[in-house]
Amino acid sequence: MPLVLPLLLAVALFCLGVYGVLARRNAITMLMSFELMLNAVNLNLVAFDAWHVDGLATGQTLAVFVITLAAAEIGLGLAIVLLLFRGHGHVDADAARDLREPADLKPLETGAEQ
Question: Can you tell me where the transmembrane regions are (predicted)?
Fold first, then answer.
């Protein structure tokens, strides 16, 4: 199989992921789009590893690390989405700005600084 076919599929997946992250406001849809981008990277890694054939399987090893990183990212992302849904009743990404601290609050002082 030529190398161009998996690369074109990876480009299409990555473009769909970028569109989903930039155009959507739903946090779950943004997480799914980010996963699409990571899967496109994995497809590139495995395709180039199969094309290069060096015996070390570095592309496949890196793909396993990316899958592990994606699993950790989706766990943390879903925890943030659940926190947002419990607090506001929706998962709109624009409403996530309410989660940060107001700028006019002073940080707590510790006893060592006094």
Answer: 62-85
